[in-house]
Design a protein that fits this description.
There is one protein chain. This protein has 341 residues and is α+β, with helices and mostly antiparallel strands. The protein folds into 3 domains: 64 residues, Orthogonal Bundle (434 Repressor (Amino-terminal Domain)); 208 residues, no CATH class; 34 residues, no CATH class. 50% of the residues lie in helices and 7% in strands. The strands form 2 sheets. It has a 4-stranded mixed β-sheet with strand order 3-5-6-4. Strands 1-2 form a two-stranded antiparallel sheet. Strand 5 and strand 6 form a beta hairpin. Helix 8 crosses helix 9 and helix 11 packs across helix 12. The two termini are 42 Å apart.
């Protein structure tokens, strides 16, 4: 008779959702009834070891993962922010959120033996007490961001010990999400499969959520967009560049400011450089020329380094082997490179 295992039932559900499987799909692949899977995820079934091994094989996690007692972060709109389109399915969102939860658990373990030494710190500024543009201005000042374009948006966040992860979201309709776990630095999960100008704006948008929206507000997305525009294109620095404004001018400025042409057109309108009718005309041109979906002039992709540097610290200074790190992080050796870059 196979040994019975009292696993952490929440880790079974987390692992399943992180692989994008339903209970029915997991049951079919593991040759276990869906009713048993349901009972297992509710903590009502002590699973035999052989059955647990079948589940672990399907979900591609080591068996030890299911015994983890780590605190899971409940992602709701009070704490997590999504930059997405309405057509993104709830199933895909659950998969992305589960993968983010796993990554936060891994990061929490790694930070137990690492002291982050960063020149800047994250702050909270209530958007109801400050206009989003003022919040962006204050943050740039506190973080000593030089006037003008930001060369490396990821670097600015990592210099404040924020963690940016480039993720495969399986769609371009989901730009990113952010979360500030208790007693940890903020984490940003961003879509790796979008143009760099869109990636940078979405990252700045999520940064706005982190510093302004500990609790949601009525105009939360608009406020995050206003923050991102000012953070990436400060009025004091870009106003002269926008005058006189045209679509051709926007194409020239894209390389300098590393934002999309559409963002520059919108910025010109928000700063009263162009009229509403001119803005509407330019927007129609953008759509007609296909610029809205495929912009000309590529911006170089930004890379992350903070998480991978911590992994290097564990292997070079703390004496961890790859096998030891896999055990610590709850991943299989064949997933090590994918999970740690």
């Amino acid at each position: 008779m196979s040994e019975l295992c009292n696993v952490n039932h929440e880790m079974i559900q987390l692992a399943r959702e992180s692989r994008g499987l339903t209970q029915i799909e997991l049951a079919a692949r593991s040759y276990i009834s869906q009713s048993h899977i349901s009972k297992l995820e509710r903590g009502e079934w002590s699973v035999p070891l052989l059955k647990l091994q079948q589940i672990a094989e399907v979900l591609e996690y080591p068996i030890t993962f299911f015994f983890e007692q780590a605190f899971q972060y409940r992602f709701d709109m009070n704490f997590i922010y999504h930059r997405k389109r309405q057509s993104v399915s709830r199933t895909l969102l659950k998969k992305c959120e589960a993968q983010a939860n796993v990554k936060i658990m891994q990061l929490d373990k790694l930070l137990n033996s690492i002291d982050l030494d960063s020149p800047n710190d994250f702050i909270e500024l209530d958007s109801e007490g400050h206009a989003p543009e003022r919040v962006a201005e204050i943050l740039r000042w506190k973080w000593n961001v030089a006037p003008g374009p930001i060369d490396n948006m990821v670097g600015v966040i990592e210099n404040a010990s924020g963690f940016v992860f480039k993720c495969d979201f399986e769609t371009r309709k989901f730009d990113g999400m952010s979360f500030w776990p208790k007693a940890m630095p903020p984490v940003f999960f961003m879509n790796r499969d979008v143009p760099a100008d869109r990636f940078r704006f979405s990252l700045a948008h999520e940064l706005g959520h982190i510093v302004m929206h500990r609790m949601p507000t009525e105009n939360i997305e608009e406020e995050a967009n206003r923050f991102a525009s000012e953070f990436l294109m400060p009025r004091a620095d870009i106003f002269a560049d926008l005058r006189p404004f045209s679509l051709h001018k926007a194409m020239i400025l894209k390389s300098k400011w590393k934002v999309s042409i559409a963002s520059l057109v919108r910025r010109a309108y928000d700063l009263d450089v162009i009229t509403k009718s001119k803005y509407s005309s330019l927007y129609r041109q953008i759509c007609y020329r296909g610029i809205r979906t495929q912009e000309p002039i590529e911006i170089p992709n930004e890379t992350t380094s903070l998480f991978s540097n911590i992994i290097k610290t564990y292997t070079s200074q703390l004496g961890y082997s790859i096998e030891g790190l896999c055990k610590l992080l709850g991943i299989l050796p064949q997933h090590f490179l994918k999970e740690t870059v």
